[in-house]
Amino acid sequence: MLLQEQAREGRARIGAFWIRRALRIWPLYFAVVAIAVVITPPPGWYTRSLLTFTTNWALLHQSYDSSLNILWSLAFEEQFYVAWPLLFVLLAGRRLPLVAATLIGSSVIVRAHLLGGTLTADAVWSHPLGRLEPFALGIVLAWGWSRWRSAPRPTLPGWTGVAIVAIGWAAVIALLRFGTPVGNVGALPPLWAYSTVDLILAIMLGVVLMARGGLLAHPIPVYLGRISFGLYIFHQAVAQGVLLHVDVPWPLRLGLTFALTLCLAALSYVLLERPFLRLKTRFTYVRSAPV
């Protein structure tokens, strides 16, 4: 979107970008944090990290068992949203592949150092300087997509895209299942596992963009994408609640978890998120829509 805005408007409006991101993330994020803090007050350091989007840094040196730990990724995301537009404007949108390559290289080096240290698996997993690859690959995809859209381009048949995505998911699941030593759930995955999974996911997204028929343009994934923020925010807490309080076979627990998460996300979108999302149009110069 920054690339498109720069191409159409001649510049990228950083302030409007930050406001759009805040309107998308802050209402639900702070509502969930407020409810959780009232119901089960966490330690002060943990509350402060939630309120300042620094959970990913706080969890490096202190541990706290909470369903809110998943919010470390949103903290990382917000930090990226602050820094990246500034770098983008500084570079005038140029040399992005070089920047992405630098981020990937530095991420691998940092992670190699962390894996040989004393940090826990959770700390390595959430360390900001060791998890730059997904952002870097997203930068490459955005850069390539902006050029691919404006030039004659090949397309993949829809069934080919579906097949490649299915193979990609199978590979990711296999890596997640067998990427750590058997019998040692807390063990750190090997260095290559992070990079491999990130690369597979990037390839899958690129295939979806190229596939004829628009795999993500079907009404069901479009709706799931619309409420995806709520799905992410609620799924871990719901899964833990169902696991603790519902004694049924795992397929039923899985279905119940998905159904409850879907309901909460749908309600959140209608009652809380959508009113703020309407305000985004005042600060939107390039419309976001299904690809």
Task: Describe this protein's structure.
The protein is built from 13 helices and no strands. The chain is globular, with a radius of gyration of 20 Å. Residues 181-186 have low confidence and may be disordered. Helix 6 packs antiparallel against helix 8, helix 8 packs parallel to helix 10 and helix 12 (228-245) runs antiparallel to helix 13 (250-279). The longest helix has 30 residues, at 250-279. By secondary structure, it is an all-alpha fold.
Write the layout of secondary structure elements.
Layout: H1 2-9, H2 14-39, H3 44-51, H4 55-58, H5 72-91, H6 96-115, H7 121-126, H8 133-149, H9 158-178, H10 191-210, H11 219-226, H12 228-245, H13 250-279
Helix pairs in contact: 2-5, 2-13, 6-8, 8-10, 9-10, 12-13
